[in-house]
Write a structure and sequence with these properties.
The structure holds 2 protein chains of 2 kinds. Chain A is of the alpha+beta class. Chain A has a 7-stranded mixed sheet with strand order 9-10-7-17-14-15-16, with helices on both faces. A 5-stranded mixed sheet of chain A has the order 12-22-19-18-13, with helices on both faces. A 4-stranded mixed sheet of chain A has the order 23-24-25-28, with helices on both faces. Helix content of chain B is about 35%, strand content about 15%. Chain B has helices spanning about 25-30, 80-85, 95-100, 110-125, 130-135, 145-160; strands spanning about 1-10, 10-15, 50-55, 55-60, 70-75. A 5-stranded mixed sheet of chain B has the order 2-1-5-3-4, sandwiched between helices. In chain B, helix 3 crosses helix 6 and helix 4 packs parallel to helix 6. Chain B is globular and about 45 Å long. The chains are: A alpha+beta, B alpha+beta. Chains A and B meet through helix 8, helix 9 and helix 20 of A and helix 1, helix 3, helix 4 and helix 6 of B.
Chain lengths: ~800, ~160
């Protein structure tokens, strides 16, 4: 029977061999998947294009623009039954590759193993911006994500099958990509491959395509093992640090010894005669060297570093004065929310509680020093081409667009391939490494692999998480209820990472002479909007209604509230670090809430729920506290001595990003009041992020966030000081920026998943780490009566707080 | 220039390097295209570059090629063959245990916990959980899969001996 095909199958040309090579470069196990599949996605004509350009250009579309509204840009079905899915969310160790496979398998009713997933290739995969913000799951389930694209294809396949088998759609059953008739002859079937015949769908994504109902799910909601884990355990896995390109050289950078110093003189003969034929590269203040091997490049970089003279740099505040310094700087101010009556209501309050919370600069601290391989040919201009292999969060926004400006090469000539690096946790050194590698390769005209030294990574590539000063003021009525909440948050920012056409917002581009977006202080704060009231960065406390124009966007009940954010210029480069601002703000809000409850001698959990309206947040609180056998009473814990080792428990919760995952957590600590050492002994963490895609993967994320959160709460702080020529960062390795390593005490972790099938799926990559700091601080108070208001919760900070509070 | 003889994952090889101080890790990376030993810090602080030298875990980033001369070097890729034990997926049982426990996120650090865990359990098959934690002391897993990794080693020890 010949298919009656309603799709406009147009017999498009097969992919060019060069395109297939590009697609297959990092899918070695499936090296020939497209070659054998006979997939015909779109016409790619090399006519009129030189061979080198064709190499770098998009295999699918020479303009390099991948239209995410087109089904064919998400899915290709081969005549040999192969299924290739293209998606824009990358794998950073958090299981997104497998999660996307699960979504695809579910909507297409096939086993995950049948799908080849291609992620993160510019000009090939849909532009889904960045893999950030715990947003990937929400995005792929959303109206512009992977799921509706595949649902559109699924609906088309049903139509095709209906015509082919000559039965109504309602009578069709589909199993692992094969249609049959319900209750009919089991041999009367047609497969996806037979229907599509390797042609393209030519369909616009229907954003209202109805997803498969959760009650029918077979793959989503199960703990599919992560597909890349065996190769990682075996050792064969090819990280970005392991990309090897024929003829590749090795590069190193030489960064200014003090902040903001400029090159005065450079003796390029300093490396002459050294092994490996080192070549010095200088572009304004960008300095580097390229040689034949890693070791030769490293030795040449050390020689070169001694042969550059730099101007004096900028001076830093003393480490101990950082927060005072921050609050004295000119600031760019904005109300996130402002009901206009806060001063008046605070004036009527029977009691007002104020507190200041402090959060330091912290690092991503990727375990691997970041690395990229760049192959820039033809110098600059429209005939030049670039290939980049990078562990970027975005092949378009932070790689291709930035490199186009940085190198002066049109974006379509730049082919960016995402390759997984070590865990990212935000804008770590991965993108800067790509910029550095590209600058080096452009200068020498050969492929260059650039991997940072540990010190380069931590002091010359890292964009730190924001140091934050949080000023909290809470007014209470005679019944002890909060009637007004006033919050002012100072945060220090610089650059915030290169994105689109702004290389100067990152370290390499700035050194190469590109301007950083100018910081402009405000004279009057910007007004709140509906958009700020939705609380995407958790500036707004969970306990207020977060009202704008009469609409409440918040989870709480407190009607009078004002949140003012004040951005000041940071001496250090900053960008997003796991739970950016959400963590710092929640640390302050969830700590001061505990202070208020304690001042009233009320149980901190009951006191919270008294000010909450959102049933999902209340439900996750109740679930977690029951699981943890929460001891309902006020803090500090009665009977604890003020000497020796004592224990306590603390709580925190939040609706992450104002709508991207509910979470609550109980931390139990022991505190040695002689040494000041805090040990987290038990953690019960629960979340409601809607339907759970992969339970084991979700628990893995939660556990990791618990321990990483302990590290950031107890240990981590970027250190710096001045020398006569300027300020510099002293945290340059794992001894000067310690993190929680093996051998440190680990808590017993209990993760609680609320699989809420009625809700839409949201993220879980940053939820738990947002609340654990406050829960630990609250537990320390419960144990000791000492309220610690400065991260990290180190012994010196413990004794300083204990002394100041006369505990 | 000097030529060094080493066994890399069971294969006798010679490699010529101009500087005897060249770190073993760089030779494994560039001359042998080994992926299982990974540059993390270059300072012996994290353990991502761990290999077995004559069966004992060492940090290859701070081991000169000259110190490996005449020795056997085993990276993650060669563990199964070295020990003569393989699961159907071609993994050593301790690697399989890491897979079974999904004991990693990015996995970049895994050479440290797997190889230190392997060597420790070999000498201490009845090790307690606390012993295992101490045996891994100083290794860094920035994704913080610590508890799963310790579970994986504990399960491996129980099943293997």
């Amino acid at each position: 029977m010949k298919p009656k095909n309603p799709l406009k199958l147009d017999g498009a040309l097969p992919l060019s061999p060069k395109a297939i090579e590009a697609l297959n470069f990092f899918e070695p196990s499936r090296r020939n998947f497209l070659k054998t599949a006979g997939v015909m996605m779109v016409g790619f004509s090399a006519a009129g294009v030189t061979a080198t350009e064709a190499n770098a250009q998009s295999p699918i579309n020479p303009t390099g623009l991948i239209d995410a509204t087109q089904v064919d840009n998400w899915l290709a079905i081969g005549a040999d039954e192969s299924i290739t899915v293209f998606a824009g969310k990358h794998e950073h160790g958090q299981g997104m590759r497998t999660a996307q496979l699960q979504i695809a398998a579910e909507e297409l009713s096939v086993a995950p193993s049948r799908i080849t997933l291609v992620i993160g290739i510019s000009g090939v995969t849909p532009d889904q911006f960045l893999t950030v913000g715990s947003l990937s799951t929400m995005t792929q389930f959303g109206t512009a994500g992977l799921r509706v694209a595949l649902d559109t294809a699924r609906d088309a396949l049903f139509q095709l099958a209906s015509q082919y088998l000559d039965v109504p759609v309602s009578q069709l059953a589909v199993t692992n990509g094969v249609f049959s008739v319900k209750g009919g002859d089991p041999t009367y079937t047609v497969s996806y491959g037979q229907l599509v015949q390797g042609q393209r769908f030519n369909l616009t994504v229907n954003s209202k395509a109805v997803p498969n109902d959760p009650s029918t799910w077979k793959v989503i909601g199960t703990s599919v093992p992560r597909v890349e884990v065996p190769a990682k355990a075996k050792g064969s896995f090819q990280y970005a640090q392991k990309v090897r390109v024929p003829g590749m050289l090795h590069g190193k950078v030489v960064r200014p010894p003090v902040l903001d110093a400029h090159v005065m003189t450079i003796d390029k003969t300093s490396v002459s005669g050294m092994p490996g034929n080192p070549q010095v590269v200088q572009v304004n203040d960008f300095v580097g060297v390229v040689a034949d091997t890693e070791w030769h490049a490293l030795n040449a970089a050390q020689a070169l570093a001694a042969a550059v003279t730099w101007s004096a740099g900028s001076t830093l505040p003393a480490q101990t004065d950082l927060y005072t310094y921050m609050t004295a700087q000119p600031s760019a101010d904005a109300f996130q929310v402002n009901t206009g009556d806060v001063d008046k209501v605070l004036g009527t309050a029977g009691k007002t509680i104020t507190a200041q919370y402090l959060y330091p600069f912290q690092m991503h601290g990727a375990l691997a020093s970041s690395c990229a391989v760049a192959d820039v040919r033809g110098g600059t201009g429209k005939t030049a081409t670039v290939k980049i292999w990078s562990a970027t969060q975005g092949v378009y926004a932070t790689t291709r667009a930035v490199l186009s400006t940085l190198l002066g090469i049109p974006a379509p000539n730049i082919l960016v391939t995402f390759v997984e690096g070590s865990g990212g946790y935000g804008h770590n050194g991965a993108d800067p490494a790509a910029y550095d590698a590209a600058l080096l390769s452009q200068a020498v005209g050969k492929p260059v692999r650039m991997q940072y030294t540990r010190r380069d990574e931590m002091t010359g590539a890292e964009h730190y998480g924001h140091a934050t000063v949080s000023n909290e003021t809470v007014g209470l009525d005679a019944n002890g209820s909060i009637i007004a909440w006033d919050y002012v948050a100072f945060r220090a920012q610089r650059g915030e990472g290169a994105i689109f056409g702004t290389p100067g917002n990152g370290i390499p581009g700035y050194l190469a002479g590109f301007p950083t977006t100018k910081f402009v202080p405000t004279t009057t704060p910007a007004n709140a909007t509906a958009s700020t009231a939705t609380n995407g960065s958790n500036f707004i406390p969970p306990y207020v209604t977060s009202s704008f124009n009469g609409v409440s966007y918040g989870t709480g009940t407190i009607a009078s509230h004002r949140v003012l954010t004040r951005v000041v210029l940071s001496p250090f480069w900053t960008a997003w670090l796991r739970s950016p601002d959400r963590l710092q703000n929640t640390w302050a809000h969830e700590s001061v809430m505990d202070e208020v409850a304690a001042s009233l001698q009320l149980d901190p959990v009951q006191y919270r729920t008294r000010h909450l309206a959102d049933p999902r947040l209340i439900n996750v609180i109740n679930t977690v506290t029951q699981r943890a056998n929460w001891d309902t009473r006020f803090s500090p814990k009665p009977g604890n001595a003020r000497t020796g080792v004592v224990t306590g428990r603390g709580f925190a919760c939040v609706l992450y990003e104002g709508g991207n995952g509910y979470c609550a957590l109980v931390a139990e600590v022991s505190v040695d009041q002689q040494s000041g050492i805090i040990t987290v002994t038990n953690v019960t963490a629960g979340i409601d992020t809607g339907p759970v895609v992969n339970p084991n993967g979700l628990r893995n994320q939660m556990e990791g966030q618990v321990i990483q959160g302990i590290s950031r709460t107890l240990v981590e702080e970027v250190k710096f000081r001045n020398q006569p020529t300027g300020g510099f960062i002293t945290s340059g390795d794992w001894s000067t920026y310690p993190v929680l390593s093996f051998g440190n005490p680990l808590p017993v972790i209990d993760t609680v998943l609320i699989n809420n099938l009625k809700a839409s799926p949201t993220g879980a990559g940053e939820t738990i780490i947002t609340i654990i700091g406050a829960a630990i601080g609250n537990a320390v108070f419960d144990a000791t009566g000492v309220r610690m208001r400065q991260i990290p919760l180190t012994p010196p900070n413990f004794f300083a707080a204990k002394s100041a509070q006369n505990v | 220039m000097a030529t060094y003889q080493l066994q890399v994952n069971g294969q006798s090889s010679s490699v010529t390097v101009d500087d005897p101080n060249t770190p073993l890790l760089y030779v494994l990376q560039e001359n042998f295209e080994i992926n299982g030993a990974r540059f993390g810090c270059g300072l012996s602080q994290c353990g991502a570059c761990t290999v077995l030298l004559d069966g004992n875990p060492i940090r290859s980033c701070q081991t000169a090629i000259s110190a490996a001369d005449g020795h056997s070097v085993t990276s993650l890729e060669g563990l199964s063959a070295l020990d003569g034990r393989s699961t159907p997926d071609g993994l050593h049982p301790i690697q399989q245990s890491f897979v079974d426990q999904q004991a990693m996120q990015c996995g970049y650090c895994t050479a440290g916990p797997i190889l230190y865990g392997y060597a420790f359990i070999k000498g201490n098959p009845n090790a307690s959980r606390a012993d295992i934690e101490q045996a891994l002391s100083g290794l860094i897993c920035r994704c913080c899969a610590h508890t799963r990794m310790i579970d994986a080693i504990e399960n491996y020890a129980q099943e293997a001996f």
